[in-house]
Design brief:
The chain is of the alpha/beta class and about 475 residues long. It has helices spanning about 20-30, 45-60, 115-120, 175-185, 200-215, 225-230, 235-240, 245-255, 260-275, 295-305, 315-320, 325-340, 350-355, 360-375, 390-395, 410-415, 435-445, and strands at about 10-15, 35-40, 70, 75-80, 85-90, 95-100, 110, 125-130, 135-140, 145-150, 155, 160-165, 190-195, 220-225, 240-245, 275-280, 310-315, 380-385, 405, 420-425, 455-460, 470-475. It folds into three domains: about 10-75 and about 170-345, Phosphoenolpyruvate-binding domains (TIM Barrel, Alpha-Beta Barrel); about 75-165, Beta Barrel (M1 Pyruvate Kinase, Domain 3); about 350-475, Pyruvate Kinase, Chain: A, domain 1 (3-Layer(aba) Sandwich), CATH 3.40.1380. The protein is about 35% helix and about 20% strand. Its cofactor is K(+); Mg(2+).
């Protein structure tokens, strides 16, 4: 008998002070963390280097592949340090935002990390602080000072975000800080790089060029959190390796009632393109303070799974919350329950329904593998792959059986691990097709996942060392004629 069906949708956990120890990371991995996110808006390079080492060592000890996602800050505008960590501002009160450096902000005046703020806002513009919890309206501009009136008050805290809805700023997609952080990430071989505040496909092409110029091939995850990105999503999707639906800033930049529809549209587009998509932000937000999520949060996570997300993400819940491990466990439970309802899980449209035109060979083989697995009652689909692209194509059809991606490229292991339903397995170089098929049989039998005679579907490229082409699909029973 095969082992119980593994969870298909992956869980991304943000690391931070709440889990900044070997024990903390070990507990997250044990609870179900699949991808470790390092938020470069916070922490030093030394901090991040230490966490990378811990994640890699603990993942290896657990026999797991846990890729590292470097999340660049991007042109995020933030408040400076505020007196006592935070002060209260009240509705109707004046507040000056200034680009002039100051040691500590107060309820009357606070530093903002954007030199051109006074040049780009004008009377009547809205300014949102702290993910939209606070709202200001511009009353006048005087030199580097932007005078505002508080519309919605509350705690004004250090280094919280500043959003300028409906305003297009001139800030570059990669700041000087991002370039330094990018160089650090490339030097330390992160598995993914998340680009914040993407506005166009050219933003993604720019960072791709920089990565290639450094002699690296690290996939970029484009964070969709600006209305311009939604408008230019087709070009962004063509240039990027994957997408993050970053609903926090997106829900500030566009009307919040539009976010659920945009989320579904973006996920569907990624599914059709066979590119991984992460749904992020405020998924179990209440668990930062409470041991159980709200029913609405549980529903939100389940709906993200049913929409077709490859991964769901925890941010403050694991980085700074009181119950980081519990948050992962509960998310794992919610995801598994959603996945158990196979009737409402949908994959890519059937290829014949998409177009009458000839399909690329690799796409056709991937689709055929899923159909074969279903019609022959196979219990696994196994891909002999170099980059993992075949595994992603197969996963986009959301088959009802586990997918195993066998690769001889160590760097590809982490990239594959983000994809829905795929477990990466490292193997040595396979010179011939028969060698590759034999290795698949041996690995599955040695792992104890399946008994001899279990039917499986295998995809590969012929001749086997071929890269970038999957042109073979093979149905066999484990152990028969191959071991």
């Amino acid at each position: 008998m095969p082992r119980p069906t593994p969870r298909r949708t992956k869980i991304v956990c943000t690391l931070g002070p709440a889990v900044a120890s070997r024990e903390g990371v070990r507990a997250l991995i044990g609870a179900g963390m699949d991808v470790a996110r390092l938020n470069f808006s916070h922490g030093s390079h030394d901090d991040h280097r230490e966490m990378m080492e811990i994640v890699r060592e603990e993942a290896k000890a657990a026999g797991r592949v846990v890729p590292i996602l470097q999340d660049l800050q991007g042109p995020k505008i933030r408040l400076g340090k505020v007196k006592d960590g935070g002060v209260l501002i009240h509705k109707g009160a004046p507040l000056v935002l200034t680009s002039e450096r100051m040691d500590e902000g107060t309820a009357e005046r606070c530093y903002v990390s954007y030199d051109a703020l006074a040049e780009e806002v004008s009377e009547g513009n809205r300014i949102l602080l702290d993910d939209g919890h606070l709202e200001l309206v511009v009353t006048r501009v005087d030199g580097n000072d932007v005078h505002t009136e508080v519309v919605v008050g509350g705690p004004l805290r250090s280094r919280k975000g500043v959003n300028l809805p409906k305003l297009k700023t001139a800030r570059p997609s990669l700041t000087d800080k991002d370039l330094a952080d990018l160089a650090f990430g490339l030097d330390h071989d992160v598995d993914f790089i998340a680009l914040s505040f993407v506005r166009s496909g050219s933003d993604v092409e720019d960072i791709n060029r920089r990565i290639r110029a450094a002699g690296k091939d690290i996939p970029v995850i484009s964070k969709i959190e600006k209305p311009e990105a939604v408008d230019d999503f087709e070009a962004i999707l063509a240039a990027t390796a994957g997408v993050m639906v970053a609903r926090g800033d997106l829900g500030i930049e566009i009307p919040m009632q539009e976010v659920p529809i945009v989320q579904k549209q973006l996920i569907r587009a990624c599914l059709e393109a066979a590119k991984p998509v992460i749904t992020a932000t405020q998924m179990l937000e209440s668990m930062i303070e409470n041991p159980r999520p709200t029913r609405a949060e549980a529903t939100d996570v389940a709906n993200a799974v049913l929409d077709g997300s490859d991964a769901v993400m925890l941010s403050g819940e694991t980085a700074a919350g009181k119950y980081p491990v519990e948050a992962v466990r509960i998310m794992d439970e919610i995801v598994r329950q959603a996945e158990a309802n196979r009737r409402v899980l949908g994959g890519r449209q059937a290829m014949e329904a998409v177009s009458d035109a000839a399909q690329p060979v690799s796409d056709a083989v991937s689709y055929t593998a899923v159909r074969l697995a279903d019609e022959t009652r196979a219990e696994a689909i196994c891909c002999l792959t170099h980059s993992g692209s075949t595994a992603r194509a197969i996963a986009s059809h959301r088959p009802g059986v586990p997918i195993y991606a066998f690769t001889d490229d160590e760097a590809a292991l982490g990239r594959i691990a983000l994809t829905w339903g795929v477990e990466p397995i490292a193997i040595g170089f396979q010179e011939h097709t028969d060698d590759g098929v034999r290795t698949v049989h041996q690995q599955l039998l040695e792992r104890g996942d399946y008994e001899p005679g279990t039917r499986i579907v295998i995809t590969a490229g012929l001749p086997l060392p071929a890269m970038g082409l999957t042109n073979m699909v093979h149905v066999s029973s484990l152990g028969e004629d191959w071991v």
